[in-house]
Amino acid sequence: MIMKTFRIILFLSFICAMDAFFAPSLQAQESLKSNTVTEYNGKKFYIHTVQKKQSLDDIAKIYDVTVYDILVENKDLKKTNPKAGTIIRIPYKEIIVEEVVVEDELIEQDSIVYAPEFVPTTFDSERLYKVALMMPLYLEQVDDKFLSEEPNNKQLLAKPFSYLHFYEGFMIAVDSMISKYDMKIDLRVYDVDQDTNKVVAALNDEWLNTSDIIVGPFHLKPFERVNAFANEHEIMIVNPMTLREDLVVGNKNMVKVKPSYSSQMEWLEKVIADKYADNNIFVFTMDTSNMDYARIIEEIALRNINEFSYVPNKHIKRIIKKQQNALKNEEIEFDSTRYMSDNVSFDVAMINEFPDDTTKLRNQVVIYNYSIDSLNKIKNTASAFRNNLVIVYGDDKVFATEMINKLNIFSKDHPISLIALPDWSKHDRLFNENLMKLSTIVFDDDYTDYNTYPVGIFICRFRDKYGTEPKDMAYHGFNIGWYFLNALMNYGDNINVGIETYYIPLLNTRYDFQRKSEFDGCDNTYWNIYQYKEYQKNLLNF
User: Fold this and answer.
1) Which of 60, 150, 516, 540 is the most exposed place for a label (fewest CB within 10 A)?
2) Looking at the 3D structure of the chain, how many domains does it have?
3) What is the number of other CB atoms lying within 10 angstroms of the CB of residue 327?
4) What is the CATH number of the domain that holds 40?
5) Which helix H or strand E contains 189, and what residues bound it?
């Protein structure tokens, strides 16, 4: 095993031509700046009313603050594009003019990824925080020639390690904490993969006994072993990858950052209640293996849909006429006096006679096993007059593709919306025009909006430091490093209790840690929920 010890005192220069890109353009929006100043909790704030199509980035530029400054003072604000009319507090900054004498020096402003403007009162500036990172680096596979190459050659920095981007993102978080707060961090990186000998060697390091936090290992069996060690020594341990919620049971020092599928069900309830209360709902599973989740979804849907929907007869008349004309054009025989939909035979004459009335239709929830039923059984049950929500549980790529294609054909005569569970976002090139047509909702544990200021800054810093584009694991590494180092600075030895209520904005997700009992670890319960609509991927806010 190769183990590297890092005592980190780093100078991080931010050399990037992004200033012009992000430079505020205030002249056009200066008139939107509020003159209303109030005092809250001993601080002064502007009171700003969000304008139409105004983002937090726009507002931050007007008041010469950061997006983070706004988010930290408005805890209920969950996204960077708030609704028009939202009232928010903007930190009031006194303008102080100082005379500065500069004698032929180049002054470089170190750019921190949206760090807060306050230093917590609990922060011990003299304390050395001991952080262990255990991850598979496969360092023994790197030949000596590669390691001896000139480090300034950025092409060589694209190392062939699958987890390298996580490490690099984590290091940017470490650099930011050191540069912003002068936080003293003793970081030790252990090359731990599935080799048992590497785990044993790492745990034999006496330094680890008094560490403040352990991140990793990434693989299950090594993690279970290190987790037992962490519990024995009362050390917080962070699992970066697993979805299994059973791992936190009885492990009070463990924190799991990937949300579990059971918490996904809680978010699904919010989605149905908010958007689909007047829908027929059809739950499809790929096979019998997911029937337990299908029944949970059925219960959730029944709790949150209305018993009946009331559809205007004018709308029903228009749909019936459209369908009958289509049958005529295809020279297909049909009964012009009756129309079948919603498992109901509609009297066409009565619908035409009372155009200003409404028809009461019962909403229902039905479970189908796709391997047995396909889509055949919903043809009569689905409604032609109101929306039908199809919830699919099963993320096999072949299955997902087949469902998307068939639902699009079916949607020509029946309005269809799709919720794809549990994790269709992992499939490359799956999201196409057909998903847009179905207004598909997808759950993801992270969502990177490249138009936000923090993400832009992070990308720029990553390019400058490593000479390549950050991949998903880089954002994941930064988020974990940034969150837990900030939490450690805020709470110190009480971090295990503090994180249950601790919130700090991250690059592409958020952490909402909950503990089922005092004996269990913390599980992140937050899912990003986004919808494909109008050729855009829109993050939904609940």
Assistant:
1) 150
2) 4
3) 12
4) 3.10.350.10
5) strand 184-191
What is the rounded average pLDDT of the residues 238-260?
95
Final residue of a structural domain among 427, 444, 461: 444
DSSP bridge pairs for 237 = 214, 254
pLDDT at residue number 389: 98
Task: Name which of 397-411, 419-433, 438-452 the model is least confident about.
Answer: 419-433
Rounded to an integer, what distance in angstroms lies between the CA atom of residue 14 and that of residue 525? Answer: 34
Which amino acid, one-letter code, is at 166? F
**219: which residues sit within 8 A by CB, 6+ positions away?**
136, 193, 194
pLDDT band at 239 (very low <50, low <70, confident <90, very high): very high
CATH number, position 403: 3.40.50.2300
Sign of CA dihedral 122, 126, 127, 128: positive
What local confidence, expressed as pLDDT, does residue 349 receive?
95
Would you say residue 118 has pLDDT above 60? no
Same domain assignment for residues 287 and 422: yes
- DSSP state at residue 50: P
Q: In which element (H, E) is residue 325 found?
A: helix 313-329
C-alpha–C-alpha distance, residues 502 and 491, integer Å: 10
Asked if residue 144 has pLDDT above 60, the reply is: no
Residue with tokens 């593709």: 401
335 has pLDDT over 60: yes
DSSP-derived pairing of the beta strands 388-393 and 365-369: unpaired
- Of residues 470 and 140, the one with the higher pLDDT is 470
The residue among 397, 380, 371 whose CA lies nearest residue 291 is 371
What the block records as the tokens of 376 is: 């055949």
Q: Identify the domain containing residue 32 by its residue range.
A: 26-91
Domain closes at, from 444, 463, 486: 444
How large is the average pLDDT for residues 392-418? 93
* Residue 211 covered by a domain: yes
- Which residue reads 């490359």 in tokens? 428
